[in-house]
Amino acid sequence: MLIGVLAGLFVVVQRAVNARNTSPNIIFILTDDLDLSLMPYMENTNRLIGEQGATLTNYFVTSSACCPSRASTLRGQYPHNTTVLENSPGFEQFYKNGKDENTLAVWMKEAGYSNSFLGKYMNLYPAGVERSYVSPGWSDWHVFLGGPSENLYFAYTMNENGRLVRYQKKAEDYSTDVIRERVISFMEKSIWWKSPFMAYISVYAPHGPSIPAPRHSQMFLDMEYPKSPSFHEADMSDKPLIISDLRKTGGLFEEEEANQLFIQRVQTIQSVDEMVVDLVKMLEENGQLENTYIIFTSDNGFHMGEHSLPSGKMLAYEEDIHVPFMIRGPGIQPGTVVTQMIANIDVAPTIAELAGAQAADYVDGRSFVQYLKSVSESDADWRKALLIETGNLVGTSHVVSYRGVRTDKFIYVEYESDELEFYDLVNDPYEMDNLAGKLDAETLSALHNWLEELKACEAQSCRDAEMNVPEGIKY
Ligand SMILES: [Ca+2]
Ligand SMILES: [Ca+2]
To answer: Considering the entire predicted model, what is its pTM?
Structure first.
């Protein structure tokens, strides 16, 4: 009898608590330059996020350069609409063009959320503004001050809610660990105030120079980089000159160099993997785990010797644009696999829908909540293509930008130099054989016109253009 009354009372109290806090919390973990080859070494992340929720097997970034990707993620727009197509001037461009005034954070704030940004906001932040500047919508702000030669693991400066704090080189200054402390503290405060929260955790790991926390520096020393068939691609005669030029500039990336860099990258992400354990534990202890979406992804991929290129990113090859994405949370069945072609421009509208917030009208992307909550192989209403676009590539003697369109079957890329690439992704998934020279004039013209439509699109016209696969593409 007593137990029955207590249980009844518990239900009543629980309902009252739920009424005050029914909006789900959002934790968004954005790594920097983490590519798919590293995922087998994120054991806790796989176990606590991926296996407990959904894995997106066809998730892409619409630009594989840091700043364009970050701007697209925050606003749900293609780079030509965020106006950030390059890493420099990066943040300054975003701010100057008024794009920083309205991002996901603002939509979430309007829906009653407390929002924290931790880590790397945008390249070269805070160029063009006061060093104490905090972007609109964020109630908690712990952001690296960037610079032309960024090393944001040790000896960096952070804007912490308007106060500039310099970190040194001691073990406890390691940036991923500092972020972990700050985010846990933000979550504690939000839970105490019964405020739904969004924590946007933007770690620097494993961006180069990949420096692990001291406690991880002796781990994984015997690892070998998993080399794909395109590693040291022997016949590069099919590739555009810009690609050959990148190769000449950097020299051949030797197998031993690839192994060494891979070891450092695996070591550097271990602190992120540990953070995931702490976040889940903290949520569980506070009864919030079942009311929180946790997302893990990366701002761009990375190549290390594929197509005989030196290590880097910013290109339209799969290694650079295809990145990991996993999400757990209310209504998502463990083990869900989402195969639709989803991109960083979809993240902001998706988080908004999960949170009950209103995304801005300017958004180019689409919410993919429908695929998280019920498994569907059908993509009748989903996009058939994605625009990939990047401005001037840094570090080359040629100033080159490109635009490309990727479907499930192929990718077509136009460089500013008028050089073209076309890969049959079904029969040539490693992009070894550029077929652009073999396409007939009609197909080339159809592809070119489609790309013209995509690269000028805005909001609904982007979603329409993504559906307009030209007929009669022969290859
Ligand atoms: Ca990056
Ligand atoms: Ca080839």
So the answer is: 0.94
